Amino acid sequence: MSVIKQQDVIDSVADALQFISYYHPKDFVDGMYDAYQREESQAAKDAIAQILINSRMCAEGHRPICQDTGIVTIFAKVGMDVTWDAEMSISDMINEGVRRAYLNPDNVLRASILADPLGARKNTGDNTPSVIHYEIVEGDKVEIDVAAKGGGSENKSKMVMLNPSDSLVDWVLKTVPTMGAGWCPPGMLGIGVGGTAEKSAVLAKEVLMESIDIQELIKRGPNSRLEELRLEIFEKVNQLGIGAQGLGGLTTVLDVKIKDYPTHAASLPVTMIPNCAATRHAHFVLDGSGAALQTTPSLSDWPEIAWEVGPTALKVDLNTVTKEDMLKWQPGQTILLSGKLLTGRDAAHKKIQSLLESGEGLPEGVDFKNRFIYYVGPGDAVRDEAVGPAGPTTSTRMDKFTDMMLAETGLIGMVGKAERGPVAIESIKNHKATYLMAVGGAAYLVSKAITDAKIVAFPELGMEAIHEFVVKDMPVTVAVDTNGESVHNTGPAKWKSIISDKIKLEVQ
To answer: How far apart are CA 282 and CA 399, in angstroms?
Structure first.
């Protein structure tokens, strides 16, 4: 019979969360590098290169892979014969580990958890509480899986109650295109099937803890119906041509995982949850011998990749750029931004809307006229950094505010990640504005282009406050031009056609 000490749980959880904030699992790095080598779409290949370069930089610098360091999800299997040397409950021990990890001064992780979600939405300040799933099992050990799930991918989770005779494959192929690129592909799809509605969701989240092994499965062949489905869905989803960051390409998913559970005769509950390019999870076992700490990987696990913006990249001075300049920008063109850039996301936009509707106007020091806004909630700076990891957030959440910002504040451009919806695209076209895309999953790399940062409004919003960044050669892509052409519409359509033509040639 093992005796598990309170401090060992706390230390092990804190260590795992720090570890996964800056180390990708090796299976993910290998899977992403394989996709990079096979990718034929230059836009997608460039995006994957930035993700891999960012990953190595984070491993070297011990800084977060993504500014969104996630909501912590725990799967704990507690042995029936375990005894405890503890004053806290297990949940309190786990949350204390989360608190210590996220407030670690050497590598501060962004606090993203809001209490009172339907009301004040006040940040708890330490990323607690976590979401914990317990299972009581045989034995005298405690096994814990730890994940930190970003909001961009979590928001794209899909759930359905299919009829027992319906096709899972058909539903997945119909649903994945509706998820857009806000989940930062390429990543993994976790699919839970069976049980009840909530059980299918837990299965989908739990199966994402498994390692990427689809290429090994392809080589050896399937041994079960679930493995056959994994291969079929993997192949057919990649044939959709969505590609890295939704720009169009050969790889949309690195793996597909499926876990099932017995269900009611009248039911077929299904949940699909994507994991993004900041895949973060770890596993440890407590047996009474002390804290279970993660093993530092070798930097040789990361490929050496160089990414150059190329001679056609256009340098733009944000301090002097005009709408007339933007008329010449082409969809898919690489832009290097320098100068002053304001930030803002959901909460800031909501406050701006209230101020404008009340007639009070914008706060002193906030002037969007002829300027660009960056949709970002940066992490805190440490040591000599100007700002912490500062990758883009999903832009579609700001779509409903876009016309207000363009019509009433003088804003001329936006920077974010993933596609814009029809309402935003129409507004961009009408106002001859533009939308630029930065790569999601490359937050530390992006932050290196930020030379200065300060909060200029709404400090009470924490990471959602309005900042002013000074940037130098920040790499972005023209995602929606002044005519309303979106690369997230044209790119996947083009590559879906290219892939279809290849398949036809192989069949002939």
So the answer is: 35
